[in-house]
Amino acid sequence: MATCSLISTRFHSPSSSLFRSSTIKPTTTIQLSKTLHLHYPNLFLLRLPSPKLTIPLLPKLSIPKPLLLLCTSLALSFTLLVSNADSAAAFVVTSPRKLQSDELATVRLFQENTPSVVYITNLAVKQDAFTLDVLEVPQGSGSGFVWDKNGHIVTNYHVIRGASDLKVTLADQSTYDAKVVGFDQDKDVAVLRVEAPSDKLRPIPIGVSADLLVGQKVYAIGNPFGLDHTLTTGVISGLRREISSAATGRPIQDVIQTDAAINPGNSGGPLLDSSGNLIGINTAIYSPSGASSGVGFSIPVDTVNGIVDQLVKFGKVTRPILGIKFAPDQSVEQLGVSGVLVLDAPANGPAGKAGLQSTKRDSYGRLILGDIITSVNDKKVTNGSDLYRILDQCKVGEKKVLTRSSSIHQ
């Protein structure tokens, strides 16, 4: 193995001949060890890694003292700067990316409609088991939205069901006591009213749900799990779906199905289209576990509009009825018949006046089944949902022709 020698050059004093002048051969080859040490008193130590260094010099080069000091300082500074370049690069911060046009539209939609969405707290009176004190404790929460400048708030009925007191929190975190104006259990819609200044109330823009298309984008705003306003996005997955009311079990037709996440607390919040207009009320999800599984349902705004108008004006909804009680569909299926079995038709009701027979027992205790409705105005009726669907399309005072089958004994 070749042996490398170490050459160390030290500048002793200004009177040294090296500071005055130096005469060196045109080309000098210096065999170095792995590190060349250039020492200068009271300055610093420079290490230049190189196994072999060839230094070409001019003949009879005379180096003045000030110039030599300047060149040495510049060379050392440059070496330190280059050696720290890699570590400095780690601290370089890139500028944030610009939002795309669709992202900007989504952000704008959320910012413009958030002031219209409120948070509703359902309070119930409970008695403490140990102190027997009567307390108001939260038993549920949900979302809602401002309907008009008069302080009317629209939400789901199941959000306020069983409440002894209701609190509404606006977007600016101000809280007000709310009174129930009216509700429709069959369609799961309720209207509240708060005494808030009109300048704090921002009604949500009302849209139309009749011309919706599967695949168009939708946006759901709410307060899931009691958090601040949140936004979830998705598309319309299906139209004209049917779900049952959580309160009465009566079917709700023409429901919008969406894959936008509707978590607990989103109930009663608005479903918006890409223009920021209301197209539905988020009301339910289909999930065995209770978590959002990509199948959410919203009551269409065309249905909500008519219900809210009646609740605001009259405090209740006027809906056509036959004035009967009918048997569950499972019981009718066990009899092997199709239609709606009349259990009770009061004589002063529309069905009783028309002559429909109720289910009763004879003198021997045998069950005599009442009439079975099989059609209304030539529209086939196979179960209770069919009957409700037909009645929802009728108006109060209209006359309808019922087709019934004869009674049978059990």
What does this structure look like?
It contains nine helices and 24 strands. The chain is α+β, with helices and mostly antiparallel strands and 410 residues long. Among the domains are: 89 residues, Trypsin-like serine proteases (Thrombin, subunit H), CATH 2.40.10; 99 residues, Trypsin-like serine proteases (Thrombin, subunit H, Beta Barrel), CATH 2.40.10.10; 82 residues, PDZ domain (Pdz3 Domain, Roll), CATH 2.30.42.10. The strands form six sheets. A six-stranded antiparallel β-barrel has the order 6-7-8-11-10-9. The protein has a six-stranded antiparallel beta barrel with strand order 12-13-14-17-16-15. A hairpin with a 6-residue loop joins β3 and β4. The chain is elongated and about 135 Å long. It is found in: Plastid, Chloroplast. This is Protease Do-like 1, chloroplastic isoform X2.
What is this structure's SSE topology?
Layout: E1 9-10, H1 17-20, E2 27-31, E3 35-39, E4 46-49, E5 52-56, H2 65-83, H3 85-89, H4 101-113, E6 117-127, E7 134-146, E8 152-155, H5 157-160, E9 165-169, E10 175-184, E11 189-194, E12 217-222, E13 230-244, E14 251-258, E15 270-272, E16 278-285, E17 296-300, H6 301-314, E18 325-326, H7 329-334, E19 340-344, H8 350-354, E20 360-361, E21 367-368, E22 372-376, E23 379-380, H9 384-392, E24 402-405
Parallel strand pairs: 1-3
Antiparallel strand pairs: 2-5, 3-4, 6-7, 6-9, 7-8, 8-11, 9-10, 10-11, 12-13, 12-15, 13-14, 14-17, 15-16, 16-17, 18-19, 19-22, 20-21, 22-23, 22-24
